[in-house]
Each structure stands twice: as structure tokens, then as C-alpha cells.
Amino acid sequence: MRPYEELVSEAAEADVTGWSFDWLDGRATEERPPWGYARLLAERLGRVASALDLDTGGGEVVAEAPRFPARMCVTESWPPNVERARALLGPRGVDVHPTEQGGPLPFPDGTFELVTSRHPIRPDWPEIHRVLAPGGRYFAQHVGPKSVVELSEFFLGPLPGATDGRDPAIERAAAKRAGLAITDLRTARCRMEFFDVGAVVWILRKCVWWVPDFSVEKYEAELRRLDALIRDRGSFVAHSTRHLIGAARPATR
Q: Which residues cross the membrane (predicted)?
């Protein structure tokens, strides 16, 4: 394995825009949930005339679909990802809408047959209900409670009861309060392994909510300790949690 300084310096300078994790190839692995979200998303996009993807990142997941509806829109709040999504999806006729996190969606009521999202930052159930057409569907893969908590606690110490509002039962109740009917809810716990300290530096720069105040300088002692642990054990193991959720806006009687 390469020296600590080389691994960390490389990861600290690497690009983290977009929602692709190709930089981690050979350096980290993550077990995927059994349902195959990208495939299921592509199937649904091919069956509707209008769809909206929320928190699309750089548009990488949506771009896997071979066919889009006649009206396809995506939203994203981080400016570098907005530009990346425009470059990737714009040539295929997708409208990319910059948004402010926590703000209203820039669409009239009842606009879309399908609203989707892979790992939304914080699902706004009333807004999802509002922009769905009567009889429309919400289909998404959400991050679950205590996802990758082993890594967060390595840097931050114990985080007792840290569900971050992502418990599927809590989200089910919130969706119902917004007027949506839950049609599907499945959960998974998936093994992750990091094979060098550079992989951890890169992922903490990308997924900033895992260690919100992360910097190489601030956490040098922890990073060196992690580097020694990986060299001794071969990897650092954590677990992601995911849930697949489907919901529908009831049709108007």
C-alpha cells in the first residue's frame, strides 16, 4: 500500500462533483440492495408521460434509463452538480431546475405522473404530494437510519439514537400525513469496505453529512489511526442502510 501522505493528498485533490462513485473502484466496495433501483426506475420512466427526479446529483442515475417520458425534469441544489446534470441530461431533452434546499418545488400543482429520487437529502412530502397529478406515483430509494454510522462514530465518537429522521416508519407516517398512500416499503442493510485511507477521505468530502466538519487537517490524528487499522486488518467495515419506498397520490373522485 502507498504511503499515508500520498493516499490522503490524492484524495483531497480529487473531483467529488456529481453522483458517481467510480473514483472508489478498487479502493472501496458497497453491497447493493436486492431490488435494483436503477432498473426499476428505468422501467417506470418508460411508462409515463411526465416525470420529475428530485436531488438528482449530476444526473447519473437517471441517465441510465434508455427512454425518458415526453416531459422529464430534474432538480438539484448544489451548483456544480446542476452544471454536471445539464451537460449529461440536457442533450436528451431533460429540463434541469436549480433549487434551494428546503424551498418549494418550481412546478404547478399536479404536474407529474411520477416523482422519483435516489437518496434525497430530506423528502418534502407535502411538496411531493402537491406536484403529483391525482393518481400519480412516488418511487424512491432513501438512505435509512444509522447508515455508515461506524465511520461517523470513528471520527465523532458515539452517536446514540442518531436516526437523522430517516427511519422508514417515521417517513411512512410523514408521507401519510401529507396525503399519500404507501404502496411499497422494503429495507436493506448492506456491507461496505474501505481498503485505504484515501477512499475514506474522498467519501467524507463527497458525503459531507457523515462528518459535517470534516477536513484532513482537523482529523489528521483519526485519519492516521484509521490508516494503521486498515493496514493491519485489510479494510474498514461499515454498513449502509436503504429503503425502497413507493407511494401514490389518490385519484380524484
A: none
Are residues 41 and 62 in contact, defined by beta-carbon separation less than 8 angstroms? yes
Q: Do the Cβ atoms of 190 and 200 come closer than 8 Å?
A: no
Which one, of 196, 148, 204, 222, lies nearest residue 28 by Cα?
Answer: 196
Report the 10 Å Cβ neighbour count for 25. Answer: 8
Strand, coil or helix: what is 194? Answer: strand
Per-residue confidence (pLDDT) for residue 20, from 0 to 100: 83
Interatomic CA distance for residues 60 and 54, integer angstroms = 13
Q: How confident is the model over 29-48, as pLDDT tens digits?
A: 999 999 999 999 999 999 99
The tally of domains found in the chain comes to 1
Name the stretches of the chain with pLDDT < 70: 161-164, 253
Could you tell me the pTM of the whole model? 0.88
- Please name the helix (run of DSSP H) or strand (run of DSSP E) that holds residue 63, with its range, or none: helix 60-63
Whole-angstrom Cα distance, residue 46 to residue 36?
Answer: 16
Angle between helices 149-156 and 220-233 (to 10 degrees): 130
CATH of residue 158's domain is 3.40.50.150
The secondary structure of 85-146, three-state, reads HHHHHHHHCCEEEECCCCCCCCCCCCCEEEEEEECCCCCCHHHHHHHEEEEEEEEEEEECCC
Domain that holds residue 225: 4-248
Question: 182: Cβ–Cβ under 8 A, 6 or more apart, which residues?
Answer: 172, 175, 176, 245, 246, 247
Q: For the purposes of burial, counting CB atoms within 10 Å of the CB of 158, is it exposed (0-12), middle (13-18) or buried (19 or more)? A: exposed
